[in-house]
Amino acid sequence: MPTYSKDKRGMNIPVLIVHAISLIFLKRFDEAYNRMMALDKYASRHLKEGEDTFRSYCFIKALQQIALADFSKNAAREKAKQLLKAVATKPLQMINAPHEIEIVPYEHLWDMALEGCAD
Known about the structure:
Blueprint: H1 2-5, H2 12-25, H3 29-46, H4 54-68, H5 73-79, H6 81-89, H7 106-115
């Protein structure tokens, strides 16, 4: 975690996403909220919708919906519906873009994130 969390070449995105999901799963919602807001700020600054970071951009925006839904599974699912549809429109590809590395596909990470939510 320490090696990649400060990386500026994009390798930090998967690490930061997994960290946020871990915090949700551990029910550490205040920390998860802060991590997701930081991820959202990162996405707004460094990931552009429509570029090769599309899946990461949409997934980070979907994760933010969990926090905005007060960690309610059903509310988060509804709020993120369109973003997750957008992720599904662009299939996972093995490319040489480190910021798009998905060790576990975002669709599966979403399900894991929701497991830690209330409802």
